[in-house]
Amino acid sequence: MTDTLIAPPADNVQTLTIRQPDDWHIHLRDGEMLKFCADFTARQFNRAIVMPNLSPPITTEAMGAAYRERIYAALPEGRTFEPLMTAYLTDTIDPNEITNGHKNGVFTACKLYPANATTNSAAGVTDVKKIYPVLEKMQEIDMPLLVHGEVVSPDIDIFDREAVFLEQILGPAIKAFPRLRVVLEHITTEDSVRFVEDGPDTLAATITAHHLRIDRNDMFKGGIRPHAYCLPVAKRAYHKEALRKAAVSGNPKFFLGTDTAPHQKKDKEAACGCAGIFSAPNALESYAQTFEEMGAIDRLEGFASEFGPRFYQMPLNEGTVTLTRKPQPIPELLTAPGIEIVPFHAGEQMSWTFDESATTA
Ligand code: DOR
Ligand code: ZN
């Protein structure tokens, strides 16, 4: 984990109250996993963009509406939380499903997974040109496109996949659809930071809590560390530093999206382990720790609670959440019947604690 310390922590800050944040990229899964995971996000965030990479993926308005109901049903009584649903783009998706789903308030955005880029992406897009007619429609109705920015060609080094995607896919697509709002999700490189900074106002990026704290060495510390494996894979330390600077810069093109992605412990600790880091239980504490290390705790609110809604053209949340400066030991394992998940920061002591009782509506 990172030990960068640009400015000393402001020891006088004992509680931190900010406008309630939203999480602009999460995986909630389905079934028992959904029931276990949903409230970790809902207790900290008011809204979240829910990824559609279920099996089978969410490709119709009816599937999106039914999944949203299952999410509501998984939440505890009295919890206010708004899941914002996304449609999974395929080579053959019916553009009317998307436009109607958007018009009827089911789909907030569409997700582009290049085929085989990550978990449950086999049905993703094999050639972005195949969905250009869909992007045309999305531009017309002002529906955002969310992008997993990696090319998957086997001859491209895994650490270069994001940078090559910018050049080969995203650059041309942005030129072809200059009014389409695009979020480059979970950026991991300095190249992406520059690309977004230099790009049009229609382009923004989310940054995860984990990519602000791990670099590629963390996957190999004293042995292979499957719980630090996610996609896009963490890159060299200087890329992490570029992400940290972008997150705290106050540039509204960069905002919070955890990409919390739970997998069973056994599925990560396997010969072919799954990609994904479950950061939802302590997401805010993790971002707060990073912002404090960067001497920029005062910029957390913009990144977590203002820039996302502004980009998505949604109202800011009215309520507040509070973190208290209280050491918090993070468990090695979270369990429920049939479920074992290793959370992000497992075994560490965090310096902030989310105080759920202080949340205001
Ligand atoms: O690490 C990841 N896990 N990256 C993704 O793009 C997908 C996600 C998942 O669904 O497990
Ligand atoms: Zn994701």
Structure report:
- The protein is of the alpha/beta class and 361 residues long.
- The protein has a single domain, classed as Alpha-Beta Barrel (TIM Barrel).
- It contains ten helices and 15 strands.
- It has helices spanning 31-42, 61-74, 95-103, 132-141, 161-176, 190-198, 237-248, 265-268, 283-293, 300-312; strands at 15-19, 23-26, 47-50, 82-88, 107-112, 145-147, 182-184, 203-207, 254-256, 320-324, 328-329, 334-336, 339-341, 349-350, 353-354.
- The strands form four sheets. It has an eight-stranded parallel sheet.
- Helix 1 (31-42) packs across helix 2.
- The longest helix has 16 residues, at 161-176.
- The model is unreliable at 1-8 (pLDDT under 50).
- The chain binds (4S)-2,6-dioxohexahydropyrimidine-4-carboxylic acid and zinc ion.
- The site of zinc ion (ZN) has 5 residues, from loops.
Descriptive keywords:
361 residues, alpha/beta, TIM Barrel, 10 helices, 15 strands, globular, binds (4S)-2,6-dioxohexahydropyrimidine-4-carboxylic acid, binds zinc ion
Can you give the mean pLDDT? 95
Low-confidence stretches: 1-8
**Overall 3D geometry?**
globular
User: CATH topology, which one?
Assistant: TIM Barrel
> Which class do the helix and strand fractions yield?
alpha/beta
The fraction of residues assigned to DSSP E strands is 15-25%
Quickly count the domains. Answer: 1
Number of DSSP strand runs: 15
Strands of the largest sheet, in order across it? 2-3-4-5-6-7-8-9
CATH class wording = Alpha Beta
The N- and C-terminal alpha carbons lie at a distance of 34 Å
Order of helices and strands: EEHEHEHEHEHEHEHEHHHEEEEEE
Ligands bound, unique: (4S)-2,6-dioxohexahydropyrimidine-4-carboxylic acid, zinc ion
- The second-level CATH architecture is Alpha-Beta Barrel
What integer value in Å does the Rg equal? 19 Å
For the largest beta-sheet, the strand count, sense and barrel status come to:
8 strands, parallel
| Helical run tally | 10
Helix content: 25-40%
CATH homologous superfamily, by name? Metal-dependent hydrolases
